[in-house]
């Protein structure tokens, strides 16, 4: 089981690069953002709860998010070959839970691909996406809140994975192709 965590601020290209990584390495894709948006679109109870956090730029509470992730892993046996975790973990608590879930499968996070992009560009990308995405969180006010949450709750995870020797920094600006080539080069050296 080869497991990749793709890590970065909102708009850093996690979803975009995940698509390339999946087609290259045949990993199973788990995007927690996509899972939550699917529930919102279906109008489920979980979707209603998720929407109340996402539209404010806040994170879904750890306990709920960890439970959802664990259910997705259990429901998809094909994840046993390896997963790209896109948008999870976003807190130290989630990272610890992921470690336990993978240990039960005699596996671990093999690499954390950290996409690094300057704040100005992140805002520009998300505002551009907001013109077509219809997402309740792609507006300037909420984008600023999401970046604040990222700095306070998610960025500390970088140090957590640096200490574990798993964090690989990737320059997240330039063409999608060039960024993907840097990721491939990093993975090939593991
Ligand atoms: P996500 O869906 O993960 O949203 P995101 O951070 O905006 O990343 P995304 O993958 O969509 O965007 P990308 O950078 O690829 O999460 C949404 C919300 O769900 C969170 O705010 C939170 O509320 C909740 N949530 C999700 N997971 C959670 C968790 N684990 N715990 C708690 N809450 C959770 O792309 C952005 C844009 O940049 C795109 O338009 C793309 O085309 C463009 N782009 C990408 N690469 C580019 C490049 N090289 N050059 C120019 N533009 C580029």
Provide an overview of this structure:
The chain has 190 residues and is of the alpha/beta class. The protein has a single domain (4-188), classed as P-loop containing nucleotide triphosphate hydrolases (Rossmann fold). Helix content is 58%, strand content 13%. The chain has helices at residues 14-25, 32-42, 45-54, 62-75, 92-104, 119-133, 140-154, 156-163, 176-188; strands spanning 4-8, 28-31, 83-86, 111-116, 167-171. Helix 1 (14-25) packs across helix 9. The longest helix has 15 residues, at 119-133. The relative contact order is 0.20. The structure holds BIS(adenosine)-5'-tetraphosphate. BIS(adenosine)-5'-tetraphosphate is lined by residues 10-16, 32-33, 36, 53-54, 58-60, 65, 87-88, 90, 94, 125, 129, 137, 146, 176, 179.
Task: Please supply descriptive tags for the structure shown above.
five-stranded parallel β-sheet, alpha/beta, 9 helices, 190 residues, 13% strand, binds BIS(adenosine)-5'-tetraphosphate, Rossmann fold, globular
State the shape: globular
- Write the CATH architecture name: 3-Layer(aba) Sandwich
Q: How many strand units?
A: 5
What is the mean predicted local confidence, pLDDT?
A: 97
Quote the CATH topology: Rossmann fold
CATH-defined superfamily = P-loop containing nucleotide triphosphate hydrolases
Low-confidence stretches: none
Strand content: 5-15%
């Amino acid at each position: 089981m080869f497991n990749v965590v793709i890590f970065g601020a909102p708009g850093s290209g996690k979803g975009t690069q995940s698509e390339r990584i999946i087609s290259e390495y045949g990993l199973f894709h788990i995007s927690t953002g996509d899972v939550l948006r699917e529930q919102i679109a279906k109008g489920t109870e979980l979707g209603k709860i998720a929407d109340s956090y996402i539209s404010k730029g806040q994170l879904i509470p750890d306990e709920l998010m960890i439970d959802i992730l664990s259910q997705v892993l259990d429901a998809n046996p094909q994840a046993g070959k390896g997963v790209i975790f896109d948008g999870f973990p976003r807190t130290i608590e989630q990272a610890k839970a992921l470690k336990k879930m993978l240990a039960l499968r005699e596996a671990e996070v093999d690499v954390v691909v950290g996409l690094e992009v300057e704040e100005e560009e992140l805002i520009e990308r998300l505002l551009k996406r907001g013109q077509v995405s219809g997402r309740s969180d792609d507006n300037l006010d909420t984008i600023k809140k999401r970046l604040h949450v990222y700095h306070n709750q998610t960025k500390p995870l970088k140090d957590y994975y640096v200490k574990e020797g798993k964090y690989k920094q990737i320059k997240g600006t330039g063409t999608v192709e060039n960024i993907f080539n840097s990721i491939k080069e990093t993975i090939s050296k593991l």
